[in-house]
Each structure stands twice: as C-alpha cells, then as structure tokens.
C-alpha cells in the first residue's frame, strides 16, 4: 500500500494520521482512497499524482508534511515487468506516449518491435503510466528497495 505523498516516514504516519479523510477530499484527481483500517492510500489505477500538495495542505495533524516545497513526495519509480507487451514481441508504446517527462522512450530493435528504455532519474514517480498499460505490466516501487 502506498501512503500519500509527503507522508512522515516509518511509524510516524500511523501515529499522526487521525483517518479524518481530509486529504481524500482535497485531492483533485481523486487518487487517494481509504485503505483497510481507514488510513489513506494512493490508488494509481485512478490516475496520477500531480504533486499539487493539496493533500498535505489539508492535513491538519501534519501526518503529511510539505514544509519544504522542494521536498521529494516519495521515493517511488515506475518498474516495467515481464508482462510488458513490447518485451514479449508485441508492438506497444502506450507508456512512452503517456509519460509527460519522457522517462520511457522506445528504442528500435532490428527485426523486432521497439523496446522500452526507462530513465529512472527522469521518472517523477507520478504513476501516470500504470493505469494506461494494457498488460498491467507497470508497478510503482520504492527506488531504495529496488536498488538492494
Ligand atoms: S499531491 Fe495533489 S494530486 Fe497528489 S495525492 Fe496530493 S492532492 Fe492528490
Ligand atoms: S488529512 Fe492527514 S490525518 Fe487526515 S486522513 Fe489524510 S493523512 Fe490522515
Ligand atoms: S511514473 Fe510518471 S514520470 Fe515515471 S515513467 Fe511513469 S508516467 Fe513517466
């Protein structure tokens, strides 16, 4: 389960969050939902995070803290899995077409279909490529956990 952006780390979020639901109401794309237990979570199947910060602004108990507007919202990055159609030899470039920062590009492959090239440094972790993928091949993963 992915906490909302700027959630205080470790156990601090659960300690601070009152489950009031104000962040859910504040989120313009309505990607925040109440998870089991009532804590807010991000559901990328509903859309992408614009990083507007409205959820953090609405959080009176400060379970979401954006004191520094330049603070990273989270450590998420997109991860393209084995179900990717292009990797299975079927033409598809949907993720590359929807990524607003061109963090997924397609490299022509001689005698085959173009293959996705992922730029982790360029990925903002917005989640916008997850829902449009026709194969459900994209997941949002913690970049630190991915590197170990
Ligand atoms: S930053 Fe904005 S779009 Fe992202 S979860 Fe918060 S309110 Fe929603
Ligand atoms: S606004 Fe803050 S306290 Fe209320 S549910 Fe959201 S994260 Fe929890
Ligand atoms: S998560 Fe957002 S920035 Fe990253 S590859 Fe997907 S659409 Fe692009």
From TrEMBL:
Its cofactor is [4Fe-4S] cluster. [4Fe-4S] cluster 3 binds at residues 123, 126, 129, 133. [4Fe-4S] cluster 2 binds at residues 49, 52, 55, 59. [4Fe-4S] cluster 1 binds at residues 17, 20, 23, 27. It is found in: Cytoplasm. Its main location: cytoplasm. SUPFAM superfamilies: 4Fe-4S ferredoxins. InterPro entries: 4Fe4S_Fe-S-bd (IPR017896), 4Fe4S_Fe_S_CS (IPR017900), Fe-S_Ferredoxin (IPR050572), NapF (IPR004496). Belongs to the NapF family. Could be involved in the maturation of NapA, the catalytic subunit of the periplasmic nitrate reductase, before its export into the periplasm. This is Ferredoxin-type protein NapF.
